[in-house]
C-alpha cells in the first residue's frame, strides 16, 4: 500500500483513541507501526506490536488503566 493509500485508509482512525486520552506519542508509534504493516503487506502479530511498544522511551499508561489503578489504590 502506497503512502497516499495509507493516508486514506488511516484517515481519522486515531481520533477515537485520542478522544479517550491515549497519549499522542503512543498514537504516533502505532500509526508508524500500522503504516509499516500496510506497506509491507504483513499482518498484525501481537509479539511484533509488543516489541514495537517496548521500544518507546517511557512506559505508557492508558487512560483506562490509570483509572483502574487509582480505583484499586483507593480501595486499600
List keywords for this structure.
76 residues, mainly alpha, 5 helices
Structure in words:
This protein is mostly helical. It is 67% helix and 0% strand. The protein has helices at residues 3-9, 15-19, 24-40, 46-54, 63-75. The protein starts with a helix and ends with a helix.
Task: Tell me briefly what this model is.
This protein is an all-alpha fold. It contains 5 helices and no strands.
SSE topology:
Blueprint: H1 3-9, H2 15-19, H3 24-40, H4 46-54, H5 63-75
In oligomeric terms, what are we looking at? single chain
Instruction: State the end-to-end CA separation.
Output: 51 Å
The stretches of 5 or more residues where confidence is low (pLDDT under 50) are none
Largest sheet: none
What is the CA-atom radius of gyration, in angstroms? 15 Å
| Share in β-strands | under 5%
Helix segment tally: 5
- Helices and strands: which structural class? mainly alpha
Order of helices and strands: HHHHH
Q: Which term fits the overall shape?
A: globular
Helix content: 55-70%
Integer average pLDDT = 78
